[in-house]
Amino acid sequence: MPVLSGLVCVHNEEARLAECLTRLAFCDEIVVVADRCSDRSEAIARNMGARVVSGIFPVEGLRKEAGVAACRGEWIVELDADEAVTPALAQEIRETVARSDAADWYQVPVDNFVGAQLVRHGWGGSFGASSVARLFRKGVKSWKSERVHPGTTFAGVYGGRLNNAILHKVDDDIADMVQRLNRYTALRGQDLAESGKIKSLWDDLFRGVRRFYKCYVSRKGYREGDMGFLIAIMAGLYPLLSNLKAREIRTLSMQPTLHAAGSAVISFDDTRLGHSA
Description:
Shape: globular
CATH superfamily of the largest domain: Spore Coat Polysaccharide Biosynthesis Protein SpsA, Chain A
Order of helices and strands: EHEHEHEEHEEEEEEEHHH
CATH class of the largest domain: Alpha Beta
Oligomer: single chain
Largest sheet: 10 strands, mixed
Strand content: 15-25%
CATH topology of the largest domain: Spore Coat Polysaccharide Biosynthesis Protein SpsA, Chain A
Radius of gyration: 22 Å
C-alpha cells in the first residue's frame, strides 16, 4: 500500500484546524505548513500528531512547495483549513491510491457552503471552484507565483475525477463573501501592478460580462436563486476590481513621498471646520 500524506497550509486557523486534521486521520501522516501564525494553529497541529513546517512564505505557491517537500508519502491529498474530507471520500481516496499504477493525479469534486447553505452550481471566474486537483503523486504538481489561487501545472498522467466531494466552508455569510472579494482583488491587483499586465477598462467589462454569463448560465448558477446570481456578480466584478486596484497601486507608487524635498505641505485650518483652539 503506497504511503499517503495529508497536507494543510494555514495562517491563523485555530478555530477550524482541528476539525480539518481530524478528517485527515485516514492518511499515514499529516504535514501542516504554518505561515506566520500568531495564534494556536501550530500547537493544535503538533498536539494532533502533525509534523509542522513553520516559516514566512510571501506567496501561496511557496507554502505549498514547502509542504510537499516535507511530505514523506508517495501520494498527497491537499486540503485548506476550511475544508473537510467525508468518510466516503476518505475511503475512495485510499482505494484510488491503492490501485493507481498508471495515473498520477485526480480531480476531486467540491461541495461549497455559504453558511449552512450548500451551493452546488455557478462557481468559477477565480471566485470559487466546483472541482480541484487535490490528489496527486509527490513531484507531479507545481504552483505558479500568483498571490491568490496560483496557477498549477502537472507533470504526470491525469486519472479522472473522483465521485465523492470535499466539503468546503467558503464563506460564513454574504458579508464574508464581500470581504473575500475585496481581499482577493487586492492581492490580484498587486500581482497585476508588479507584472504590468493591466487590462483596459473595456477589456475588463467584456471579461466581467463573459464571466457572469459563464457562472450564471453555462454553470447553471440560476438554479441557486439569489445566491447563484450574487456569485455570478462577484465573479464578473473580479477582473474589473483587480485591474482598478492595480491602476491605483501603480498611480500611488509614482506619487512623490509626502514631505519629500520640494513637495508642498498641506495644512488645515481647524477654525474653518468648526473647531476652536
